[in-house]
Structures are given as structure tokens and as C-alpha cells.
Amino acid sequence: MKPWKMGFLGAATDELAIWAGETVVEKNIQSIGVPFLGSAKAISMMGLRSEVEIESWDLQYVCSLIINDLFNAQEPKRNIDKPRLLRGPTFEDRPFDHMSDRVAGLIDYIATTGTGYERLALATAIVGCTHRGRLDSWMENRQDSALWGTFQNRLVKQEGYLGLPASFTHYENDFYSSLPDRSYDLLYIDPPKIITNTDVYSTTFRRLNRMIGPDHQHMEFDRWSKYDYTGRMRGVLDNVQSKHMMFVYTSDVRPGISTLKILFEDYGELVEEKRFRHRARIDYGLLYRRTA
Known about the structure:
alpha/beta
């Protein structure tokens, strides 16, 4: 089985996700805490055993759809049979340049009348219609017929991830404001990444979540800064106990991997380090045995 994909340019490599899943088997991990669910790529590989329990947090509406309407669902719930147009928030706001009236109207129609399963397919279709999956500008040749075709394709591809064996519990909430009162076998940490001074997610992902969820128009994401990054990491590690910690990171971001390694050494012993080539960068997978 291949890892689940949202199509984001910055998502981790398939190899890293597969390694995470293999580690869960090798270490006989049965409970996993995930403070920042994100695209859930690695989580799809960790959730392939029925004895595994995964508890996750994320403010993104799309994350709730991944867990509740895909991984936890047993069958695809469908409501839309043909493309229609509706004038709604996306039509009015035009979150991307080069987005036509018909594209915006189709997005509003699916987001307003579609099921959670269909809204998730819409989200991945939107990503696929932006330049290189960056969620920053719409490809001019991806008009309503192309969007509809991509949406239909995504509906079919999603079926392979329905009803994953693990037990999933997800909270559409900020992890720091709803800390769990328990310990885990594994704490899986894949935090937002910072290329300049602040994270690359808070703006673009807020845009996506508002497009697919008309009832999430006022959703706000807390912006991460390079100045408070280590403090945020300690806010996780100081408050949640686990036998193991898996930290996922990448090169060419701030702070650098060496700084985060020093931080994690205050809490555990590094037992495995993986490096995966990802275009021009390196993705890191670090496994720690908790000692503090």
C-alpha cells in the first residue's frame, strides 16, 4: 500500500512515511500521539494494524476530513452527481489569481452541497490545480472541466484509504490548548516548517480550508516564528510523556536540524536517524528513546 497523499509540494517523501510505518511494527507501537497531523501521509502507514491507536490534533478542517471521512469511514458517502455552479465565498473572494468564475462557482457548489468525503476530494483537487501544488496561484489551463475531472479522479483514489485498521481519534483544535492527560508508546512530531521568518502554512492552508468549508470562513491558524520554534517544541515534550519520539524535519529551514537535535537530546537518546533525498533538500526522520 502506498502512503496517502494530499499533493502538497512540501510533503515528506514516500520513503519516510514507509519507514515510519515499519518502525511502528518493529517497535510494537500500540499508541501514538500526533500533535500536528498535517497531511497525514506518514499516519496512513502507521495505521495499518488494528491494535494501533492514534490520537491527533490539528486546527485544519481538512485534517478532520482525512480522519473522520476517510480513515475512519467504511464506505464513500457521495452527494454530487454532476458539476453545478454556486455563487459563494470562493466566487466572491477569488483566493487565487487566474481563477475563473466557473472554477470558483464549482468549488463553492461542491463545498456547500458535498459530503465530507467529497470535500476532501475537492481539497486535493484544488492542490493539484495550483502551480506545483504550492497553493499560491491557480494554473490558467485548469478551468472548470479540468477541476471536475481531477475531483472525480480523487474520489476514486481515496477509496483505497477507507477504513484503515487502526483506531483514530482526532481533535480539530490547537494541541497546546488541549494537552492530553496520558502517555504514548510513540510521540510523532512533524511540525510546521519555516523557510524565512515565519511558517509557510498559516496563510495558504487557511485559504484552502476556507474554500472547502463554508462554515470555516473565520478559521485562523497560529503563525509559527523562527524566534519561538524551540519553545514550541519544548511545549510539546515537556507536557506529553512517551516511550519513543519520532521527529520529522527537513533541510534548508529555520532553525536548522542541528539545533533541533540538541533540543531533543535533552529528552531522549537518538537510536535511529534516516535521511531521504527530496528534490534539492534532505528529509530527516529521527527516532529517540525517551529518557527524560
